[in-house]
Design goal:
By secondary structure, the chain is mostly beta strands. The protein is built from 6 helices and 41 strands. The chain has 4 domains: 7-131, Rossmann fold (3-Layer(aba) Sandwich), CATH 3.40.50; 142-256, TM1070-like (Hypothetical Protein Tm1070, Chain: A, Sandwich); 266-365; 373-627, no CATH class.
Length: 631
């Protein structure tokens, strides 16, 4: 496993990791490593405890020792090297001292009395990003300097990809946002690098693989796009929706959420194939160092018998892994676990059945969580507590299937109930699912829960903890949601996790807010518009852990590519209810044409926290569906 610290739910993201892993910074690290190798033995002074990730992410050089001023860290190791007292540096047999810190001028001055005779000094300032990629030059490790993400990007003659986002940073005071982009092919070779200006206001922004391929005269490719937003404020992650669509007149269509930006130890929520399906996990190296054979593995969830992926993966390369090569006799509803060793951000998986292909993503399986006994004894003021809402699409046309997925390494069981609600907020069914073991192979088809005449036009359901037969909970409840068109056979699937919703009372960090401390009681959701003749839609849900306002006060705001608001429409959703939204049902055709394919709808509500799933419909039996993002 890579010795790196990326993200935790208490501290947030680790800017040091981003500063070392950024592809442009990695080139600076390579130049620095070459200089150090030419110098000979290198002593590292590590004032901030980053020698471990530095050695993991930089090309190798000969390390004589690591020196620190923290007496509590003595005799430990970092990057496999013993830690020594800074006072011993003066007698180190080193030709060069590397100060493992940025903005390190004062640090260098401070340790001059302890430098070995004749040794040179370098710092990580030599591996900084160029000035034009830095948002806040006064503090290099400010998170806003590393608003980055990776994108699964392809244009291979069969499929194209389309990233859609908005300059949401403008709403936080950003004035001139730019996007730096770098495209890698499957081998990790850089195909193109360019910059684009974001709209001056909160306008929409699209990167289409077909346009990129034409612009740079590229051959077919499957790889990844690195994107860095410069000049941002308020958010330090690039959020986006990614459509994958057929370019060869095929029927495939799907969308996925952003890549989460942070590598993790494990990912879960990878479904095994049906007997007539093929499931490929796309493994994309997120770093400038290779992934050695055997460093990653697949396991059947709960089996604790991982099978190694015995293939070297070059820097920034993309490797398809067919799960049937590892588990040829394991089929849906079994689920798999990906042990990624912190080498990749949230991967995509691709399911092929006959002539239709769909793309979805796995989720971070947390290693820091333990069962929380407080969830069993939540205050009655928190009502039903943690909720995991998901749409039930019109049952006359679609099947809806839900599969709970363990999403923490320590999670041994899932004590669950499913509550079903009509669009007007009435609870119309309840099903206790039991205390599901970690290794369960259970997927619940709503056809087995509801009579055929119930919710013909859809509604929504919520997974909640239910301890009537025991079990533990950690609040990180996740599930996979699968939707199948009964006529065409087209399938879309997505996954997400539980939160508390719409209660003025709080528990730890819940109910979460998009910006600021809990409770989160407002909504800002992004709905892209359709493209290529496809129409966008979303299902908005108003989940409530405890009774809240009877009706939402929701507005649909239509924006064009320049960030100009063209129109606004009011919408009400019943507490514990839901609504299906097609922009064409709320805005006239001439306004939607004015907004264009780069425009979008911002869904706002100052009275409650909504949750939603979005997609596009090709009106020919094909559709996409994934959870929405907010900002």
């Amino acid at each position: 496993m890579l010795d790196i610290e990326t993200f935790d739910n208490v501290k947030g993201g680790n800017a040091v990791y981003k500063a070392l892993a950024h592809p442009v910074a990695a080139e600076g690290l390579a130049r620095l490593a070459a200089r150090l190798n030419a110098a000979g033995r290198v002593a590292i002074y590590d004032p901030d405890g980053i020698a471990g990730p530095l050695l993991a992410l930089a090309p190798a050089f000969e390390v004589e020792g690591i020196y620190v001023h923290d007496t509590l860290a003595l005799a430990s190791s970092r990057g496999g090297v013993l830690v020594r007292a800074l006072t011993e540096l003066v007698v180190a047999h080193a030709n060069m001292v590397l100060v493992a810190a940025f903005d390190a001028g004062r640090v260098v001055a401070r340790i001059k009395p302890f430098l070995p005779r004749g040794a040179g000094v370098v710092t990580l300032d030599e591996a900084k990003l160029p000035e034009e990629l830095i948002t806040n030059p006064k503090r290099y490790l400010d998170a806003v300097n590393f608003a980055t993400n990776f994108v699964f990007f392809r244009d291979d003659g069969h499929f194209g990809t389309r990233l859609t986002t908005a300059n949401y940073w403008a709403g936080y005071g950003a004035e001139r946002v730019r996007f730096f982009q770098r495209l890698y092919d499957a081998a990790g070779t850089m195909l193109a690098e360019w910059e684009s200006a974001a709209p001056a206001a909160a306008g929409g922004f699209v990167i289409d693989s077909g346009e990129v391929r034409r612009r740079f005269g590229l051959p077919p490719f499957v790889g990844q796009l690195f994107i860095h937003a410069v000049g941002v404020a308020g958010h330090d992650v690039v959020k986006y929706a990614l459509d994958t669509y057929a370019t060869d007149n095929g029927a495939s269509l799907s969308c996925t959420h952003d890549a989460n930006a942070w590598p993790a130890d494990r990912f879960a929520g990878l479904p095994a194939p049906r007997e007539n399906e093929r499931v490929v996990l796309w493994v994309q190296n997120s770093h400038a160092v290779p992934i050695p054979a055997g460093a990653m593995a697949l396991d059947r969830m709960g089996a604790e018998a991982p099978l190694s992926i015995n293939e070297d993966i070059p820097p920034f390369a993309t490797c398809p892994v067919d799960v049937a090569d590892f588990f040829p006799k394991v089929f849906w509803p079994a689920q798999l676990e990906f042990r990624a060793g912190r080498h990749v951000v949230r991967p995509r998986y691709e399911v092929t059945r006959e002539k239709r292909t769909r793309i979805a993503h796995v989720n971070v399986e947390r290693s820091d969580l333990r069962p929380d006994p407080g969830i069993k004894t939540l205050s009655p003021a928190l009502g039903r507590g943690f909720l995991l809402p998901f749409p039930i699409l019109a049952r006359r046309q679609y099947k809806t299937i839900v599969q709970p997925t363990p999403m923490a390494v320590s999670e041994l069981d899932l004590p669950l109930r499913m509550d079903v609600f009509s669009p007007d907020g009435e609870k119309c069914a309840e099903r206790f699912l039991g205390v599901l073991p970690r290794a369960h192979d259970i997927a619940v088809d709503l056809d087995d829960v509801l009579p055929a005449d119930v919710l013909p036009d859809g509604g929504h359901a919520e997974l909640v903890y239910d301890f009537r037969e025991g079990g533990e909970a950690n609040g990180w409840l996740h599930a996979l949601f699968r939707y199948e068109d009964r006529a065409s056979g087209h399938v879309a699937e997505s996954s997400f996790g539980a939160h508390m919703f719409n209660t003025i009372m709080t528990y730890k960090a819940e109910p979460q807010s998009y910006n600021g401390p809990p409770p989160g009681l407002s909504t800002r959701l992004f709905l892209k518009l359709g493209f290529g003749g496809r129409e966008s839609f979303c299902v908005l849900m108003y989940p409530a852990s405890a009774p809240w306002v009877e009706k939402s006060a929701t507005t649909l705001e239509l924006y064009d590519a320049g960030g100009e608001q063209l129109a606004s429409r009011a919408l009400q959703i019943a507490c514990s209810g839901s609504v299906l939204v097609y922009p064409s049902a709320h805005f006239p055709a001439e306004l939607l044409r004015a907004a264009g394919e780069t425009g979008y709808v911002l869904i706002r509500d100052a009275t409650c926290r909504l949750f939603g799933f979005h997609g596009v419909d090709d009106r020919a039996g094909g559709f996409s569906f994934d959870h929405m993002f907010g900002f």
